[in-house]
User: Fold these one by one.
Assistant:
Number 1:
Amino acid sequence: MQGDNAALASAFHARIKAAEDEEGQSIHEILIAAGSEEEQQKRLSEIDERCQQTILAIREQCNNECMESHQAARLEKRTLFQQWTSSRQTRISSWERTARNTKDLQLELMPAIINARRTNVDAGMAINATQSSCCVCTEEIEGTGPSSSSGSDIKKRGCFSPCMHATTCLDCAIQIWDRSRTCPNCRGTLTSKPEALHL
């Protein structure tokens, strides 16, 4: 922008200089031409008036060019800002769409994940569910064999995720989740709230 203003100012001064040179040439021609002093003075007045009009016209033209340059610069800035705003909105929409798709995928896969946790014994993942008592409170918990008791005083067995250890009752497992979120067997970090293991 400053470069454009400097160029316009330089062009303005060049035009003024050309008008002044033209005026000086005309005056020189009048002075060396034959004629009375009155006639020469009249022609000098005409040249001076014409030169002033030329300078005013040049100044007005330069002002108009400056205004057009400023308007063009403002229009360019407005266009660039609109392009940036549009691009930003497109990126935001893309991020929101990706987040929605990710959430939808998580909701879609959640039943399969839960089912896999409950059936991962068949998939070959070892669940430590052989203890008949909770390793924390020592209360009896649901066993793994058909001879296990299943009375109302038998506590449900809790299962940790992702390690799938199941050596505590569900109540103690939930307390561990609330306090430390660390498996008491492998000391691994738990990623979700323990669930009852149905065996």
Note: The helical segments are 2-32, 37-119, 170-179.
Number 2:
Amino acid sequence: MRDLRRSRTGGMFRVSSFEFRFLQEGRAFQVLQPETATPHRREAGFTLLEVVIAIAILGVTFAFTMELLASGVRSVKASEEYIQAALLARQKMAEVVMTSSLDGTADGGELGGGFRWVSEIQPLPQEEEELPARLYQVWVRVTWPGRRGEKSLDLYTMRMGVNEAILGKAKAVQPGGRSSGGAGR
């Protein structure tokens, strides 16, 4: 494509995207670069630096997202383990409370899946030893291996045990400090 413009002092013609200027008297030529390469006009697109920065930001965002996802998965696993330990501890607590021997007994065992249990029954101190009922503290601990060492869950409850031999000899206490011997007169 050729565009030829003439004036008194010179002329200009264009071939493709290049402009040529010339002077008639001195026969000098000046070649101008295409319009798209002029420093005042920017091409549509990204520079290498912009692409590198965008990839770095994308990489950091991806790494942060993956860490959040992994942290969430670890939290869910820990919650599942605690829930399973609580259910196993309640089951063992129900079994231990129903045993007939209460005086200072201890027991333990494996539950499967890496869970272990230990139980202990201890009598609580009381002021009068002749009472037919006695309180006992029942303790059950379930342990399992975790990422950072062993984890455990403890349950405590109270149980009242009745001594049948003392129950028949119990004295009723009347208001005012008088006592009667036996359950009835």
Note: The longest strand covers residues 133-146.
Number 3:
Amino acid sequence: MVAAGDRGYDNWERGAKTPSFPATAPSVIAVGGTTLLPSEGGGRGWAETVWTKSGGGCSVTQTKPSWQAFYTGCKDRMDNDVAAVADPGTPVSVYDSYGLEEKWQDFGGTSVASPFIAGVEALSTSYSRSREGADAFYLDASHIFDITKGTNFPREEGCTPTSLCGAEKGYDGPSGNGTPDGAIELKGLPENTAVPVVSPATPDQAVPESTTNGTWTHEPTSYTYQWERCNATGGECKEIAGATSSTYTPVEADVEHTLVVKVTAKNSEGSNTASSKVTNKVKPIGEITEYSLPTESTPPWMTLGPDGNVWFGDDPANKVGKITTSGTITEYALPEKKPCVGDDLGSRWKPMGHRHGLRRSQQD
């Protein structure tokens, strides 16, 4: 934070024609001054104008920083970036802890305004503080009061363009972007820390695929998706028309190709995109894959469960088992040593002992 000085536009009060350095340095936050008075009008309760003696102006030696590229009134660095109350006629009360008899003192000048802005910066988000120079004050206008009245060059000749020395809507030289209304709360763009995951990893034609969003920083508020079809080795990927949801059902054109999905995370600062890992090749409808069952297993029944796995009975071992789409086989012991058959995953049929028939046992 650097005070712009207290001699008006281009230091005209002392006969100069240039603004003060180091306030014009591209790497600093240049702070101008305002006059702040109570006001019953408007919702804020205060009226604020440019302080007539606030420093500021267009440098002829310092390079324009990137965050001022939009401003065409000065081809080099423009002073100021932001402002705060500085008029000694509307002073800031400061408590002195270094031995003065009068502990409370009233002060003015941009040397008061600049530590005020330093306090605002200290309360801002870490991402806001990490931005170079004054960039954060240009990115977040939601916490800034726009100063639209007053001048720091109260002379008949004025300045050209008028925004160099006069307040106006939006950015102007004397007050910069305006005066803060609280801390700057930039979040930063979403950054991906864990890529989206597509499942199943080996797709089947006509069987839906789904993706997670992955893991992101800076609190994304929404996500968009784009599935792509790639060659067998995961290269030459092209967008699939209309495949823009978190699920996608492979079609015949996908067979023997691989798939990838791009997930775009968005927040108030913008967006970033992350890609999933490439899937295995899409298998066609009707392809048969063989898996070895446990030794001596002779399943009396098999069925496709609602979880997408194949379930089977294993009478010799008094177990039921499942085969996942990737070929992983897991068996589960039954509580009674009785043969079992079944018609669906939610039911098991067991002998009724001396009675004739079967009884159905519902599983949890």
Note: Residues 302-362 form one domain.
Number 4:
Amino acid sequence: MRCDLHVHTRASGMCNVPWLRRICRESYNEPLETYRTLKARGMDLVTVTDHDSIGSVDCLGSMPDFFLGEEVSCRLPSGTRIHVGVYGLQERHQSPIEQRRDDLIRLVHYFFEQRLFFSINHAFRRSLDAARRRTFISSARPSRV
């Protein structure tokens, strides 16, 4: 089974790199164009993980092989900004995610409660210290799943 779990469309908005955010977007691709490209490249399932947006669901939600994802911007307790990919969302999850994005521990607990698959994106980026990341992930996991 093939599926790219980190795909952006125009719904991601402007680039989040500080010196680029005023002049370029994360992606210039329309959701339907992105879907067709992924299918042409052999993906069995398609998801879109736009930054802090589920805007692509309007275009793609009726596709039988599409499942909703999002790349959620949030912060570790240390203040380090990270992106978390979350998959298998429903629109009802959007508001609770939005309410928890500034408290990653609460957000992770919500993902476990809702049985949502998630990943820490860009995990090996230099700005995210590996030791702090491991410590946080270990402490954030609920004692019972």
Note: The beta strands are 68-75, 81-89, 117-121.
